[in-house]
Amino acid sequence: MRQVKSKKFKGRNLGLFTLAFLLLPFALLLTACAIPMVPYRAVYEDPVNYVRLEVDDAVLPEWPPSAHAHPKAMRAEDVARILGGISVKEDRIWLQRWLQGEAPLMPAFRPEELALLSQ
Known about the structure:
Layout: H1 10-32, E1 40-45, E2 50-54, H2 76-84, E3 87-89, H3 94-100, E4 105-107, H4 111-117
Antiparallel strand pairs: 1-2, 3-4
Helix pairs in contact: 2-4
């Protein structure tokens, strides 16, 4: 009867190689999907919406500050009048409309907000 020699570590080395072969693309995929951190100033945040101020990399430092200015100069009274004319209405589903009726139009800005924004 003949004895067959077996190599004990052949299967183990193959398993480690396979594991490393599978983990390397997974690790690269995780690092590729990372979201880059952009410095910002949060003006408003909730779980669904946000308003942020971010640095614009497309603006060259040697450009004058007026490069992002509005092309028409507006008086504070005009801005307050325009913003004061904006109204919003709550969105209601059919059951809310049936029970409570249509939502009323509300001004988008309170008087103190209008004063602040129109300066």
